[in-house]
Protein: Tryptophan--tRNA ligase
Organism: Qingrenia yutianensis
Amino acid sequence: KKIIFSGIQPTGCITLGNYIGALKNWVDLQNDYNCLFSVVDLHSITVRQDSALLRKRCIEFLVQYLACGIDAEKNILFFQSHVPQHAELSWVLSCFTYMGELSRMTQYKDKCAKHADNINAGLFTYPVLMAADILLYQTDLVPVGSDQKQHLEITRDIAMRFNGVYGNVFKIPEGFTPKAGARIMSLQEPTSKMSKSDPNENGFISILDTPDAIVRKIKRAVTDSDNLIKVREGHDGINNLINIYSAITKKEISDIEAEFDGKGYGDFKQSVAEAAVEELRPIRERYNALIKDKAYIEEIYKKGALAAQKLASRTLSKVHRKLGFVDRK
Ligand code: TYM
């Protein structure tokens, strides 16, 4: 079987954007691949975090993976910081990455603008750690939202550069983005992406939101006054809702447009809200049951770390040997 790696940063809360862009596809792909899904805690500290909150949130994120339907028996689930090989490979890869290519990363530029008081080196080398995450496991496929495309491109470039010097050490990974929903937009500002750290709670839906909250946020979603359910350039608000509806119901855009021909935004929002409520209801219920089982959760991430370490150390040993480091014996 081919290999999948993906991860989510434990910041804010897991949104409908993360779910549609990534998590839902992990669930769909898990039977056909050997998968590793990580809570990428090392990445999250590029922005200051409260320690107690971060610890709690890491566990909550792992449990949300399970609640979404990720099978802990079939897949390797772990915290990135439990597998030291990520940081080790990251150092090596940073010596094969140019300052110029890192400074062209749009996410880096965005973060610099948002966190002007803390532009740390980790923010800059973030894509190198992400490359290490992926390349450590000889990953074939990386299911992510379209905002990660540039990071995947640099991962491939770093891998090819290394392979060019040392032979075939790394598998060159491919990205996987969903047809509908690769970029879910904010419900309040539909020209920017739905973000888990948006201070305006009406801009995003958490996958653990109650049905009431989901309905309220979708009803309040910003649209224009056109009242046409049709994907058209410049109509970002309604386009976004159509995308969300298409991703959840798996209906084609053209079928949705036909279904709501002659109806207005009110009717459509009602249908989108119902679809989202029903999609997320079982997730919230499973989450509320699972989060209480501390022993079970611990067993999963301990087992996951061991399994991931075993795979990661194979790649890392090979890398060290190729580089010319003395064998540990
Ligand atoms: P993160 O934590 O920002 O987001 C997690 C996943 O959700 C996707 N996503 C979205 N998809 C659609 N619409 C949106 N509005 C939206 N917002 C987020 C992201 O594309 C991502 O797939 N750098 C990564 C985490 C990471 C990673 C990795 C991912 C670290 N190492 C290795 C894959 C492989 C990030 O910040 O994702």
Remarks:
- The mean pLDDT is 97.
- DSSP finds 13 helices and five strands in the chain.
